[in-house]
Task: structure prediction
Amino acid sequence: SVTGAMLRLVLRGASALAGRSHPKLVAGAAEAARQQPGKIPFLQIVREYARPVRKKKEAIPSHLDDLPDTMLKKNYANVSAVDKVDDDVRRILSLEMASQREKVKMKKEQLAAKVRRSPNDCGSAEVQVAYLTAMILTLKEHLHMHPKDKVNLTCMMIATDRRTVLLKYLRNTRYDTFENTCKQLGIEYSPPPQYRRKITRRAAVKKEFRAMIYKEKQKLRALERLKQMEKQDEGIKEQVQPKEETPS
Result:
């Protein structure tokens, strides 16, 4: 039959391509042909062999690397009974065996301790900036390895906008605190422009119309320059060529 002839032809091609080094290719083609007689199995197997290998992105240095492994977790940092426990229990309660979320909590407290006004300060503008900075750095590392994660990208953009608003407030009210916060947290603040014009529909249409007129003027100028160059070339040719003497 036609199906049997096609199967034999495919198996011959598979055996010729595979050779002795890949005997599983022929067996896989025969098995796929029995399961799906209406399709060509050889192409499917070749596609599986020819799948591109995706290179994994190299991990960037984490902002959590400066946290020592011997540091206790947030819930056990102020407990006095932790000093009397064994070393194994202390390792369990330390950051050595902590999760990513617990490490981020400790990083938030570490950054907030640099800028807070008093030991009990948990809600001032500079402390909120420290919390948002730790969150933004964590999301940046995650998005470097997973760039298609749109949800966390949106969360990072919201946190960045919120931090910008707080920094603008500090800059307008207490400039010395603003400078100290940016210095301690390593933030490069770029101020907004002094004048912002609200773009209306009329202004956008006018801008597009002006751009269209400018392009048309450029085309006309290019044509005029081309005509001038042609005239200059003709004049040079007339000067170079000797004039023919008219017969008397």
Observations:
- The mean pLDDT is 77.
- Residues 16 and 26 are 10 Å apart (CA to CA).
- The two ends are 97 Å apart (CA to CA).
- The first helix runs from residue 2 to 18.
